[in-house]
Amino acid sequence: MPSTSHPPAEVSEPLADWYRGAARDLPWRRTEFRQDFGAWGTLVSEFMLQQTPVNRVIPHLEAWLARWPTPAAMAAASPAEVVQQWANLGYPRRALWLHRAAIEISERHGGVVPNDIDALLKLSGIGDYTARAVAVFAYGDRHPVVDTNTRRVMARAILGQAQPGPPSRRDLALMDSLLPADVAESAVFNAAAMELGATVCTARSPRCDVCPLNDTCAWLAAGRPETGDTRRRQAAFEGSDRQARGAVLRVLRTAAPTPVLIDSVLADWPDPLQRDRAIDSLIADGLAEADGELLSLPR
Questions:
Q1: What number of helices (H) and strands (E) belong to the chain?
Q2: In angstroms, how far is CA 85 from the centroid of its own chain?
Q3: Catalytic residue chosen out of the listed positions 10, 13, 32, 46
């Protein structure tokens, strides 16, 4: 585990105090949301928030939970309905994973999202972050939860680095060393670290003057040095296979439930090979089905 000269309380207490006064009013943080949807609401929100901005997620989340307020309700839906409802959220494989997870929750856990991390990890589409987020934010358990924003806060405040390195198990160990012993306070600290990274300790324009950790931040104390950035860069969206896949899915969603002729899908796409590659990859991922010369959303 990386060493730190900061006592946990020196970081957790001012951050928690700041969070209680400055946290954004987001649906999944509201008491009534937890009462209405429980851990299922948390799980759905975490699926949607993966690599998708909050402002895009909120209307989709509300519509999704209005339609499928429980895992059992969603398990009864078809894959086509799920992909259609996912709309333009991006990374549509998440919709199919969430659908499979709903079926698994219904079949293995009596329709109740489990609180055990190992059981959560056995569900489709759930990785270490999502499993811990559900256990902490839905069930109130004490675990370190680390996302991109948290990693950036720790890199700067604790390690004195401008940007975090590639994700590592050491991130969990460092976050665990900072968690308050009190279970409820540990959940607040997890949420507060994410919120600070999302709204104040941002990647490009950190607002150190209003940061609750500016008295103890190692990076700020060192003069905010440029220490390099080893994170893997995401390829540009414009002109990418990902853009082509999204365009194909838009055609299929618009036509649903009627299938369309494969040759007519993006017939004017500037790169025919990329268009064919997009269709093939969607079929391979279970996001589209081919029947002879016809293409449709999965049945």
A1: 14, 3
A2: 18
A3: 46
pLDDT at 231 over 70: no
Query: What is the percent of the chain where pLDDT is above 70?
Result: 96
The reported pTM is: 0.83
* Residue 288 burial (10 A CB sphere; 0-12, 13-18, 19+): buried
Position 232 pLDDT exceeds 70: no
- d(C-alpha 257, C-alpha 218), whole Å: 56
Is residue 11 a contact partner of residue 158, using CB atoms and an 8 Å limit?
yes
- CA-based radius of gyration for the chain: 21
- Which pLDDT score is estimated for 75? 97
Residue 202: C-alpha distances to residues 74, 208, 234 (Å): 35, 10, 18
Tokens of 104: 């698994």
DSSP H helices, 179-294, are: 183-199, 218-221, 241-255, 272-284
178 vs 10, 123, 142, 168, 286, CA distance in Å? Answer: 9, 29, 12, 16, 42
Contact (CB, 8 A) for 236 and 226:
no
Residue 46 annotated among the catalytic residues of the structure? yes
Q: What are the φ and ψ backbone dihedral angles of 171, each rounded to 5 degrees?
A: -60, -45
